[in-house]
Amino acid sequence: GDREAGEMGLAAVPGRQAAFRQDLATAVQYAKAVGCPRIHLMAGRLPVGTDRAAVAGEMEATFIENLRYAADLLAQEDMIGLLEPINNRITDPRYFLNTPHQAAAILEKVGRPNLKLQLDLFHCQIMDGNLSRNLETYFPLIGHIQIAQVPGRHEPDSHGELNFPYIFELLESLGYTGYVGCEYAPKGGTLEGLGWLRSYWESRGLQDGGTSK
């Protein structure tokens, strides 16, 4: 979408289906060029001045239509489409897709195996909490995990609500083998901000890069 115009994705925005398909085709070309097999299909925002309940039905129908189109296109490239709930309490009050429950219901209606849940634990904690049960419940749908501490959205070892060593152990026990995306704002520089990862590796008897000593 047009970020300068206040858009944040188009997949659920009525009347923007043609633009969504055009942008998706561009995204696929970029993904192929960098060897990335997953694309985040952003739902988009409620139209300005509209009531969420009043437009929810039309936006969901648009979302489902676009997701089926995207899934078929991505299947041709052996790619996966991801749906990420973004909290509407702090980050984006007008974003359409807000909870893993909503995303799971939409994924069931779409019915395409190459569409998955992108679960950002920052957003999930703000909207619902109950992370252990949510991870267990929605694990079969998860295609990617993202992390940031709550509420500051900084490094996992920064002061906040979430116990990331426990969460990482839970992901391992569930059998998660994918990447964990570090979608946080470092308090300092990038390298300084990765100090938590070195400490975590050391606590597990690993060296930088995750190799055994």
Automatic annotation (TrEMBL):
Keywords: Isomerase, Pyruvate. GO terms for molecular function: hydroxypyruvate isomerase activity. PANTHER family: HYDROXYPYRUVATE ISOMERASE-RELATED, ISOMERASE. This is Putative hydroxypyruvate isomerase. Pfam families: AP_endonuc_2. SUPFAM superfamilies: Xylose isomerase-like (SSF51658). It comes from Calypte anna (Anna's hummingbird). GO terms for biological process: glyoxylate metabolic process. It comes from the Eukaryota. The keyword Signal does not apply. Residues 9-199 form the Xylose isomerase-like TIM barrel domain.
